Amino acid sequence: MRDTSVLNDPDYSTPGASRGLFDVFRYWHLLSLLVKKGVATRYHGSVLGWIWSYVRPAAQFLMYYLVIGVIMGGHKDTPLYPVYLFAGIVAVNLFSEALRNTTGSVVDNRSLIKKIYLPRELFPVSAIGVALIHFLPQAVLLLIVALLCGLTISWLQILFFVLGVVMILMFALGLGLFFGAVNVAYRDARNFVDLILMFATWASPVLYSWSMVHERAPEWLFHIYMSNPMTGAVELFHEAFWNPLVPKAGHLPTLDVYVSIGFAISLVTLIIGQLVFRKLEGSFAQNL
């Protein structure tokens, strides 16, 4: 006769059964190990190491500032343009690294997936953690620059910053779950992500202000543009670091509406990404 006592044990769970992202909360220790591994291997064998976390955004800033700000005169229409530009670059860099890391997270950990079972969502979430850790030096540098320009920190600015980071990570995780799952069977997913990231800087107010889009684009297109989660996140970064320095520059009156829409889109993206990930994860081992 079959013994069902084990099956009735509340601590028993069927091997391979997963509750998706909710399982991540049960494996904090394993998640921390994956994050430490990702951080340790990021600059393994590199001479400069963590200095690259500063070199890349600095190089981007210099390139965009010289071309857009000086040669094309972008700094004339935007007060304290260097702070405005750098705040946008830092936000987009977080999105770029988070999405790129999550897209390749499953394939990059193929050796673990083939050998043992663990919630597959741990890999994209740990990739988000690695991106967040590498984002912190850039955020600190942005804060120092803003403080040198006269910024006074308030709780509202901290809230804007946190909301911007949360929106970026939620949106990136949703896209990363989707493309990360697809990437296991079709490596074209990474190329598609590269196309998204190529447009990310230009599709949000990083090099220019939202008012330029408002003046030149049809109203319906402007609403779509402002509903982009990255546009809302970049504007939250501007509200945290740039707008307090130039109060006469003007604020977007309906920013709260667009930020709410951006969060809603990010949440829907996260749900869709999780559903697709759950649908495809059963074939990860055989496709890897």
UniProtKB/TrEMBL annotation:
Which topology term describes how it sits in the membrane?
A: Multi-pass membrane protein
Query: Chief location of this protein?
Result: membrane
Task: Say yes or no: keyword Ribonucleoprotein present.
Answer: no
List residues of the ABC transmembrane type-2 domain: 48-280
Enumerate the subcellular locations listed in this protein's record, separating them with semicolons: Cell inner membrane; Cell membrane
Report the InterPro entries cross-referenced here: ABC2_TM, ABC2_TM_bact-type, ABC_2_transport
Q: Does the keyword Transmembrane apply?
A: yes
Ordered alphabetically, the record's keywords are: Antibiotic resistance, Cell inner membrane, Cell membrane, Membrane, Transmembrane, Transmembrane helix, Transport
The membrane spanning regions, by residue number, are: 81-101, 122-148, 154-180, 192-211, 257-277
Give the source's domain of life in one word. Bacteria
Q: Which family does it belong to?
A: Belongs to the ABC-2 integral membrane protein family.
For this entry, the protein name equals Transport permease protein
Protein species of origin: Leucobacter iarius
